[in-house]
Structure formats: C-alpha cells, structure tokens
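Problem statement: downstream parser choked on a complex file, so we are re-checking the raw output for the uridine-5'-diphosphate run. The parser issue turned out to be on our end (a line-ending mismatch), but while we're here, posting the original submission so the record is complete.
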Amino acid sequence: MLTSVCVPCYNEEQNIEAFYDRVSALREKLRSKTDFEFIFVNDGSKDNTLSLLRELAARDRDCKYISFSRNFGKEAAMLAGLEASKGDRVVVIDADLQDPPELIGDMLELMETGGYDRIATRRKDRKGEPVIRSFFARMFYKVINKISDTKIVDGARDFSMMSRRMTDAVLSLKERTRFTKGIFEWPGYKTKWLEFENNARNGGATKWSFLKLLSYSMEGIVSFSHFPLVISSVIGVLLFLISLLFIVIIIIRKLIFGDPVSGWPSLVCIILMVSGLQQLSLGIIGSYLSRVFVEVKERPLYLIMESELHDGGNING
Ligand code: UDP
Ligand code: MG
C-alpha cells in the first residue's frame, strides 16, 4: 500500500526540517504497513523553502515537490498535491506541525478496520485564539450550516486522510473557487472525526489575517449556498407589502383628516432605506456573478515552475 502525504508550504523554511524528521520517524514505524510519498507543494514562498525542498528530494526518493510560479493560496497548493498523489491513501497536512503527523498511524488503522473513506480532524477548542475571532468564527459556522445543504463542521482542519475513491471524488469537483471545508464534505462518504488539542505553530507566523478569514468565509457562503439570493427577493416582496400598507394608510388619512402636507423626513428615510436595500441586493447578485465570471474564464488554478516527482515527467522551468 502507498500513502501519499500532501504538504502545502508557504514560507515554511523554519519548519520543513522538523516536519521531515517527524514524518520520517513515522515512516520507519509504519514500514511494515505502508510505503510513503511526501509531496511538498511550494506555494510561491519568498524564503528558503524551495531550496530546502530541492535538497530533500535529492537525498530521499520518497520526497517530491511541486513549486508554483507565485503564491496561489493553500487551496491551490492542496489541489496540486492531490492531483499529483498516487497513493491508495492520501493525507493532507500542514507543514507547521500544528497537525501531529503521528495521527497518520491511527488514521491508517481506522481506515482498515472501520471501512471509512475519510478520517477528518477537528480541534477540540479555540483556546489561545483572540476572543473576537472565535466569536466571528462561531457565528460563521452557525450561519452557513443554517443556509447550506452541505454540512460545514466547526473547527474542522484540513488535516485528513482520504481513500483513493474519496480523493477522486474531490478532484472531480472542478470549481475554481475552492472552499475546501465544503468540498471535502460534499461527496458524503463515510467519515470518522478525530479530535486533537490545538498545537502552537512550530515556527514562523500564521498567514491568516482577520480580513483574509472574512473573505474566506464569504467565499464559503457563496460557494455552498444560494440563500443570500433568496434574501434579496424576500426583501423585495416585504418592501412591496409594506408599501401597499402605507398606501392604504395614506388614503384613509387623506379621507379622514384631509391632507396635511408633511412627510419630508419620512420620505428621506424611505428613500435611504429602499436604495440601501437595493444596493445590498445588487451586491449579493454581484458576488454570485463574480463567481460565474471566475468560472467561465477557466484560468488554471496554479502554474508550476519546477517540480521533482521522481517519475520522469517533471517540469523544470
Ligand atoms: N499555506 C500555503 N499557502 C498560503 C498560506 C498557507 O500553502 O497561501 C500553507 C502553510 O505553509 C501551512 C498551511 O498552509 O502549511 C496552513 O497555513 P497557516 O499555518 O498559515 O494557517 P493556520 O494553521 O493558521 O490555519
Ligand atoms: Mg498553521
């Protein structure tokens, strides 16, 4: 059996060696059960990551790498890893050792005994995270699970093991805006969830700013739910009903009290409110339209500058 381990790397020079040590120890331990291939994807790092990967690939045939022309994001890096993987089992794991590689042993075991197609992980709690961030994260999961058919699990990490069948299913989703948390859920194959404590990064800093997280969650909502579009229609219908009510009130008032000419302030309020809501609806439609725009352009999700996969078919730019 072959297990492919896909490792997206962006500015991880401080972690590659430590990561390699941990996984090669694991490889020794599991030697009787499975062979390994480690596919590192250099996502346009600006530090020494690429030369470290070159070195690894030169001294260890199980280590392979793909290097992008620039930073395309973790989603693209994971995709490239999955596409290059040949294993019967495919693991996605971060390079910063926040995901304990030793779990891979348990995952293999569980796959064999439980007949699962996917062993996924989530962290136990949000300890050590800024309070505001946890709050918004929790809100996000509440909202998206109300409005999406695909269940998005709170605290789910990308660290997971998939069967070949599951990997192929994930790769068959060709969409360009890849919200991985949803894409891995979408096939609906039998999944086992493991929990682990949140570990601190081995070295370096996280690449997620609050704004990045916010736009990522918007992406999730637009990719996996049509509900926002429904909202804008509902707002339209509601406003129409309210305006009917107002017409009736105004007619009655006219008949009973005559016509005291007032209402400039209320008019201003109404105009502001209605145009605001129209703008909101336009914005909602716009976010879906921009997704369509991205999809129809059919741009590749990443460009490979250089690779070493030890299979003779490498691109070296
Ligand atoms: N990563 C990547 N491309 C990016 C950002 C991150 O390949 O544009 C990789 C990064 O090297 C790491 C993993 O994705 O292996 C998770 O990144 P990070 O630790 O910054 O995220 P966090 O653990 O804070 O969610
Ligand atoms: Mg991390």
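For whoever reads this later: Residues 42 and 270 are 54 Å apart (CA to CA).
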